[in-house]
Amino acid sequence: MSDLGAALEDKTVDAGGAPIVELIDIGKSYGNVHALRGVDLAVRAGEVTCVLGDNGAGKSTLIKIMAGLHDYTSGRMLVEGAQTHFRSPRESLEAGIATVYQDLALAPLMSVWRNFFLGKEIRGALGLMKTDEMKRITGDELSKMGIVIPDLDRPVGALSGGQKQCVAIARAIYFGAKVIILDEPTAALGVKQSGVVLKYIVKARDAGLGVVFITHNPHHAYLVGNRFLVLKLGGVALDKQRADLTLDELTAQMAGGQELEELSHELRELDTDPRRPDADRA
Ligand SMILES: Nc1ncnc2c1ncn2[C@@H]1O[C@H](COP(=O)(O)OP(=O)(O)OP(=O)(O)O)[C@@H](O)[C@H]1O
Ligand SMILES: [Mg+2]
Fold first, then answer.
1. CA pair distance 74, 37, nearest whole angstrom
2. How many Å lie between the centroid of ligand 1 and the Cα of residue 56?
3. Is 19's C-beta closer than 6 angstroms to any atom of ligand 1?
4. Which is nearest to 40 in space by CA: 65, 63, 22?
5. Confidence of residue 79 (pLDDT cuts 50, 70, 90)
6. What Gene3D superfamilies has UniProt attached to this entry (predicted)?
7. Is the CB of 32 under 6 A from ligand 1?
8. 20 to 30 A from 129, CA-CA: which of 90, 241, 279, 282?
């Protein structure tokens, strides 16, 4: 993790530049459920924007708007300065926005290299697949990212969760994404695997992509983020640059400091067992 820390120190300043994607006062209702209201977000090249929030806060709704799965119902979305409504995920992808969902859109039984080129296969005369070339490129691209997968013929299903996320990130970069959106990529991973994914988030950022990183985990966010947006009940509870925010503040915001205080009170009142460890000292 110390490499990661060093990488971050270099680039904690606002990378500036015009946003690639900008959401202005965006809102989304599903019938009379207001999943999002009044949210502003700017995705810039070379920056990681973290979106945090509790279950049901509106994180997935926010990225589905950028990914072309749902349209917004109020506000504006600008893509490279022009107001846009995506009518399908394909339109979002064509605009250079790659979305990596937690339950990845990788085919588990197909090999690593087939997945890397899925839907973008290189074909020669008579439509025959150029297998060797695709394998070579897959190997080159993964190793550029520092990902070592000894056998590219292995089915993707045999990779670890972290490796799968990394293959999906490397693929998005290779096929020219300008923005990569990751929905809770570390949620199901252990400490070490999470570290690997966080490193590729930094690599994607350093390759000049705008990264949107959705997570519940303030520690993961703080390690890689330039900007932090915390959603609560569909609204913005916090929106800060890294320089204006400490990890403690972010954690308290996520945990709901006040609510935790009350909970700890209630738990203490419940705990009247005389055999509890500190009973004799009380
Ligand atoms: N298709 C839908 N129809 C109706 N309501 C929806 C729909 N999708 C989401 N919602 C509602 O919108 C709100 C925000 O949901 P969303 O999935 O964006 O939250 P989230 O922050 O991603 O939560 P989680 O951390 O659990 O993934 C919730 O109240 C949810 O019930
Ligand atoms: Mg979600």
1. 8
2. 5
3. no
4. 22
5. very high
6. P-loop containing nucleotide triphosphate hydrolases
7. no
8. 90
Which atom of ligand 1 is closest in space to residue 64's alpha carbon? 18
Structure confidence at residue 279 (pLDDT)? 47
Residue in 29, 60, 231 to alter for ligand 1 test, most ligand atoms within 8 A of Cβ? 60
**Coil, strand or helix at 109:** coil
CA 234 to ligand 1: nearest atom: 14
Residue 18, token pair as written in the block: 């015009």
Domains and CATH numbers, the chain: 2-105+176-245 (3.40.50.300)
The model's pTM: 0.81
Tokens of 158: 């045999």
pLDDT band at 62 (very low <50, low <70, confident <90, very high): very high
Place of tokens 């439509």: 127
Q: Is the CB of 6 under 6 A from ligand 1?
A: no
Ligand nearest to the CA of 53: 1
Structure tokens at 262: 């009350």
Which residues, other chains included, contact 173 with Cβ-Cβ below 8 Å and sequence gap of 6+?
Answer: 141, 145, 180, 204, 207, 209
Most distant CA atoms of the chain, gap in Å: 83
Written as six digits, the tokens of 1 are 């993790």
Residue minimizing CA distance to atom 6 of ligand 1: 30
**Residue 192 CB contacts under 8 Å (≥ 6 apart), including other chains:** 162
Q: Give the lowest-confidence range in 2-6, 8-12, 59-63, 274-278.
A: 8-12
% helix / strand / coil in the chain, to the nearest 5?
40, 25, 35
Phi-psi region of 126 (alpha: psi -120 to 50; beta: other; left: phi over 0): left
Residue 33 phi, psi dihedral angles, 5° rounding: -90, 120
Residue 58 CA to ligand 1 centre (angstroms):
6
Q: State the burial class of residue 251 (Cβ atoms within 10 Å of its Cβ: 0-12, 13-18, 19+).
A: middle
Tokens of 114: 């087939």
